[in-house]
Amino acid sequence: MRTLQQRLMLTCTLIAIFTVLVGVLLSSGLLIRSYIRMARQSAWSMQRLALNQLARYYQQHGRWDGIESHLVVASERIAAQPFLPQQRVVLADTDRHIIFDSLGRLEGTPMPQRFASIASPIYVNGQTVGYLVTPYGLGLVDIFSENAFLVSILRMLVVGSLISGSIALLVGLLIARHLTRPLVALTQAAQRLAMGERHAPLTIPADKELADLASAFNIMAANLDRQEELRRQLVADIAHELRTPLSVLRLEIEALEDGVAQNTPETLGSLREEVTLISRLIDDLRLLSLADAGQLTLAPETLVVQDVLARVVAPLVPRAQQHGLELRIVDCSSSNGCAPLTVYADPQRLAQILHNLLENAVRYTPSGGTITLHTAAMPNQYVLFEVADTGPGIAADDVPHIFDRFYRATHARDRERGGSGLGLSIVLRLVEAHGGTITVDSVMGQGSVFRVLLPAAPTV
Ligand code: ADP
Description:
5-stranded mixed beta sheet, binds adenosine-5'-diphosphate, about 15% strand
C-alpha cells in the first residue's frame, strides 16, 4: 500500500514535471515566433537596400563585373545583423547563372531550384538585370538550424526550467515530509496506546488541522487513561467492600464449626445481616452497570406524591426515633390544602431515590436533629422533592465528589456510620433516567439540603 508521504511526493513530482513542460513549451514557442518575426523584418529591409544598391550599380556600369567587392562588403554587413541566421548572399545574372556566392560554393553554376524559387529579381528601368537571394527568402528550418544564438537561448530555457522544476520538487518533498511527520508520530502513539503502553502527550504541531488532530488525540488518550484508572479503582473498591462482610461471615461460621459460638437466633441474625449487606451491594452495582449500559428500564406512571411519601417515610420513622431525630413532611397539600401533587415516575425507583436521601440524612444527622422532606410544584411542569437535615454538612471539597461511586466524605469513613458510598451515585442515575436534576446545598455544622426535580404528571 502506498503511504501518504509517497502519494504527496508523487503528486509534487507530477506537478513539477507538468509545470516545467508547459513552461518550456509556452516560452520557447513565444521566443521562436518573436525571433522569426524580427529576423524576417530585418532581412526584408536588408534585401530592399541590397536590391536598390545592386540596381544602382548595374545602372552605372551596365554589367555585373566588379560587383564582387561590393557584395563582400554587403554580405559582411548582413552577417553583422543580430537576427539574421544565415549569412549567405547569392547573385545571379538574367540567365540565372550564379555570379557571386558569399559562401563561395556555387559561383559559375546554374542557380539551384531551392534558390530559384526564393530569388528576388533586380529591376533597372523595368528590365530584369539579375537575381538576388538573401536570408529573407530562406525558410524556418534554415533560420532555426543554423542559428547558434537561438539554440543556446532554448538550451538555457530548458536547463533553467529543469533547475526550477527540481527546486519545486525538492520543496514539495520537504513539505510532504513536514506534513506527514506529525501523522507518523500520531500513528506510533496510537499503536503504543493500543498495546496498553502509557505515553507522553504528543507535541502540538504548528498547522491548525494537525494541531486539532494532535490535541484531540491527547484528550482521547487522557480520557482512556482516566477510564482505565477508574476501572482499576472500581475493582479495588468492590473487592474492598466485599472483603469486610465476607471476613465477618467466615469468622462467624468458623466459630460455629469450632463450637465457640452457639447456633442461636442472634448468631443466625448476624449472619443474615452480613449476607443482606453483600446482596444489597451487588444489587446496587448491578443497577449502576445497567444505568451505564443505558439498559435501565423505567415503568413511569402518574403517582400521587402524598402516597409515595407515606410509603417511603413510614419504615424510616422508627429508626429516626431511635436516633432521637424528628422526621417531618411538609407538602403543599398538607400545608395549604391545595390540590394533591402528582409526579410522572417509576414508583419503585422514586421510592429508592427518596429512601437513599432520607437514609443518609438519618445516618449522618446527630441525635436531636431534624429531617424535613418538603415537596412542591415548580414552574415548567416539575415537582420538587427536598430533603433537608441539620447534620454536620458536607465540606466544599467533598461536594463535587459525593455523587461518585464509592466516594465517602471524611466524616463518613468509619464503618459504623458510613454506607458503601454507592447511595448517591444511584440517586443521580435514577434522577437522570427520569429526566430530572439533583443539586445539593450544604453548610458545615448546619446541615445539608438535597433538591430533586422530577417531571410532573401530564395534565389531562
Ligand atoms: P454512603 O453510603 O457512604 O452514604 P452515599 O453515596 O449515599 O454513600 O453518600 C456519599 C457521601 O456523601 C457520604 O459518604 C457522606 O460523606 C456524604 N453525604 C451524603 N448525604 C449526606 C448528608 N445528609 N449529610 C452529610 N453528608 C452526607
